[in-house]
Amino acid sequence: MLRPALACCKLYISEARNAPALRAIERAAAGLRPAAVLVNAFADDAYNRVSYTLVSPLVRGCGDSALPPLHRTAFGVVEAVDFGAHAGAHPRLGVVDHIAFHPLAGAHLDDVAALTRAVAADIGDKLQGYSVLPNHPKCD
User: Fold this and answer.
1) Catalytic residue among 90, 98, 102, 136
2) For this structure, is 90 an active site residue?
């Protein structure tokens, strides 16, 4: 019998003062409930930064998508950000400051590493964004 495996995604986005942007981001995150759940959001207005915590099973999707729900949700949140309309004081490379995946109950680090690489590739390929992974031998 397969045991359930959960993973967590932490996203830090420099848009805390932009209510319409936050609503778009949160709609993107809510779009896959109950497969992926936004469990926490913390806004830091001084730095114009918000952090989101998403949790989801590490399973393939149903229907037309073979991607795990956490992959679709993390990519959807990044896709919902308007990079051209951003302003902020927090030191950053872009409006999406940081994306991290963590294994939770029953998940293995290798599964989460594969998910990280897949999301990074989609962001780079589909959004023409900067790679979120360093040039690391295991990531090539």
Assistant:
1) 90
2) yes
